[in-house]
Write a structure and sequence with these properties.
Layout: E1 2-6, H1 10-20, E2 25-29, H2 32-44, E3 51-55, H3 63-76, E4 86-91, H4 96-104, E5 110-113, H5 118-127
Length: 133
């Protein structure tokens, strides 16, 4: 599995990288702009990401807007609905506004609240059929 981790917080990036490195090849971005650039390069290179794990609240380009741009790129590239990269949004704000925007505006697969625990993340990914049971 090819995984893109996008988070502006260094501790979160290290935690997510530690978890996801057991499940695939990981690329890491420190903000939404860098994440979009990595996603675009992988898509144009014919090796798109299978999974995106992205923080919602980041300076510059927030995770919701970054994921929306990635979804537009997928549509432009002709990726059929249901075959897009899975997207896990990570947030320290467990509020309805951010979660709703993640699902409806950016078409996220699921979300996980910070601080991220390996058990919660693994359970969420299994429930969404991203990781095997």
């Amino acid at each position: 599995m090819k995984i893109l981790i996008v988070d502006d917080d260094v501790v979160s990036r290290i935690t997510l990288l530690r978890f996801f490195s057991d499940h695939g090849n990981c690329a890491v971005a420190t903000d939404g702009f860098e994440g979009v650039d990595l996603f675009k390069g992988a898509l144009e290179g014919g090796e798109p990401f299978d999974l995106i794990c992205m923080d919602i609240q980041m300076p510059g380009l927030c995770g919701i807007d970054a994921l929306a741009r990635m979804r537009d790129m997928e549509r432009t590239a002709g990726i059929v609905p249901g075959r897009e990269a899975k997207a896990v949004m990570v947030t320290c704000h467990d509020d309805v506004k951010n979660v709703s925007a993640s699902f409806f505006q950016a078409q996220a697969t699921c979300f996980v609240a910070k601080p991220v625990s390996f058990n919660t993340l693994a359970a969420t990914l299994r429930r969404e059929n991203i990781l095997p049971s």
